[in-house]
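request received
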Amino acid sequence: MARAITTKQKVSWTILAWAFGLLMFFPIMWTFLTSFKTEGAAIADPPVWFFFDWTLENYTAVQERSNYPKALMNSIIIAVGSTILGIIIAVPAAWAMAFVPGKRTKDVLMWMLSTKMLPAVGVLYPLVLLAKWLGVIDSRILLIVVLMLINLPIIVWMLYTYFKEIPGEILEAARMDGASLKSEIIHVLTPMAIPGIASTILLNIILAWNEAFWTILLTTVNAAPLTAFIASFSAPEGLFYAKLSAASMMAVAPILIMGWFSQKQLVRGLTFGAVK
Amino acid sequence: MATAHSKSAARIMIAPAVFLLLVWMLVPLCMTLYFSFSDYRPLRGIFEPWVGFENYVRFFSSSSFLKSVFTTLWMVGGVLSITIIGGVLMALLLDRPIFGQGVVRMLVIAPFFIMPTVSALVWKNMFFNVDNGLFSYLYKWLGMQPYDFLSQAPIFSIVIIVAWQWLPFATLILLTAVQSLDSEQLEAAEMDGAPALSRFRFIILPHLSRAITVVILIQTIFLLSIFAEIFVTTNGAFGTRTLTYLVYQRVLESQNVGLGSAGGIIAVILANIVAIFLMRIVGKNLDT
Amino acid sequence: MGNITLNQVTKSFGDVQVIPPLDLEINEGEFVVFVGPSGCGKSTLLRLIAGLEDVTSGNITIDGREATEVPPAKRGLAMVFQSYALYPHMSVRKNIAFPLKMAGMPQDQIDAKVNNAASVLNLADYIDRRPGQLSGGQRQRVAIGRAIVREPAAFLFDEPLSNLDASLRVNMRLEISELHNTLKTTMIYVTHDQVEAMTMADKIVVLQAGNIEQVGSPLDLYHSPQNTFVAGFIGSPNMNLFTGSEAQKHGAKTIGIRPEHVQVSKTEGMWKGRVGVAEHLGSDTFIHVHDTGLAEMVTVRISGDMQVKHNDTIYLSPDMEKMHKFDDNDQRI
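response:
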């Protein structure tokens, strides 16, 4: 039972919490504001806050840059593609681990998790070499596969924890009712696990979208997603604050919104169930 | 709870995931291990398949190795202290009954979803820049000389950027843990005459200890391989070369694959030490 | 249809044998109840018959057909689970239709069967609701409906009433008994509640630690329990079991007397004792009698009209005809 507190206390806590919240959010807010300024207003001294001539010219300018739409396309294809591929591989594995647990199930899960902890630099050069050798360097398919493999342990783990909440008796009932393994998974398990599968997809799209090691180092031109595109703003274009802000906002906005929807799953997915 | 039939089905279902991860882990790692014992510099066309531990000796004895280890420790340690202390305070704050709690939560969590390259660029240019950055205006407004963060205090600057990105993660996880604390425990302690600070020290903090450990371990694993933030801001200059970055430079920039691979193997071993602790905690949780 | 035979069936999980070699014959149309304390292996036995677990050795035949290796779906059995195991994302109609759909039955036949089952079970008004919108008793009926439409050789019930509240449990008990009278299909019913076993069964199988302690009709078990375990397990309240000198007087290691087979008097009797707790049920009163000189406390049933108070002195006389005697191996003499 929460006890009643005075309005005065609540107001002071509210002010404090909002102050911290706004402080954390400020860089994003500032980027958002700057993206609507002219380049001059963006570096005005003293800085202008809300009262400037709002313009969309930065957004049009960034979109007209030949490689922005391509980078956006690449980001979407790579993030969505790797997530869907991961789900397809992970659903059967998670089914097996959740409903037919054996002596080694726990070990397999832990081992999968351990691959996630392998530092990327440890396998950097072989991967570059293999990619060149297979002729897939700087291709979307390479990044789809690599990001799928990086996130596969998280996908399996999240699905596993969601599946474990589904009572095994229901799947046994389906088996008694004459369902084959395929119909058991497609007609019974998947529909029941839709919320869990959806949040797994959401979180993994976010992780894949923001991945900034392999996406930068394995691409040059053709497959470069937004992470690499933004990194290329470093200098000298980075000094055009308004355009940098517009490009940044376009790169983060969809993910920020998805992220707000999936904050609960984040705890579950990234701590592997160790915090409840 | 299964029959031989479902067990064999399970094995088939799990096989693709296991096989893919096995290949993904073993093939490149074995190649790295192989290269780490060779003198391999593709740009100069040098390939000597076996030089023993020479690369390891060179990597260990070079001054940049020790420096990079210290840089890594500084960065990881700095980010961890800020995010843990800040995260506990934020979690306790957000657990209070406040108006618009949901919105504040959204504001606080937002930085975690920002692409690392974007946050690095925004901080570098719009905040840290000595000519036009917001901090410079702030310094001037306070009547002080503008400060060039990225060249004067490069590690600190990167720690700020990374801590800003990870503070939401720590807050969210610690908030989840705080909310799972049985409020009757706190009320019992209050009845027992424990003042607020003691309640925090003897009840809240022990309750959070597990979550804090998890945050530390998970962040450490991610922070050990920070890349984009350094790549975008200083490109490894001004003493911001971490172990990860050093290996990247050896392998891809100077194309000394043998030396870099030795460094890579060392990074793998160091990360494994952290990972073992994390796996223990997660593994315990699996039993329940 | 509906003969099930278990021949030397065993089940081990790893090194632990939960079912030692076991033979059991279930005849067509019988209502058989497996009863025993939790962990006695009764659910495992049911799951072996269902095919949800493999037998470690031995074989199972259903209607004379070897079924040991047959997957659950092909055994022609239907099961009602403890949690009902309804598909939460499907309406009642789709839940009941699911096994028929899996069997590839044409849609018009499915509809007819589902409607029929729904009217038999009074589910017609809820047919388009989801399980989450139903009460416990309604869910139970949907689970039964899903089993009925398959026209199975036998129904398997795994503690189906344990999630219902007490009054509903009594109603559902009746409904299932009536269903058995109508369908005349073999039913195997697992419960830990001996009252359910006694009230519903044609044949009770009492299990302990995977062993069959006794098989028989409810009254067989009540009147002539084969060993002390069955004697103590069947009947409510439990039979009084005495060991020691009192038992030796009757040439047994253990003697047992049911609470309803003890005469109570305020003036004279074989054992003199002091009243402890008295549980008044209205029609009957159960009293716990202490200090009788026996090692164990004695529970007796008296008429609800008789007035007794805590610490009253009371005299007990067991009905010698109804006394049960057990030897050193706890077997009936």
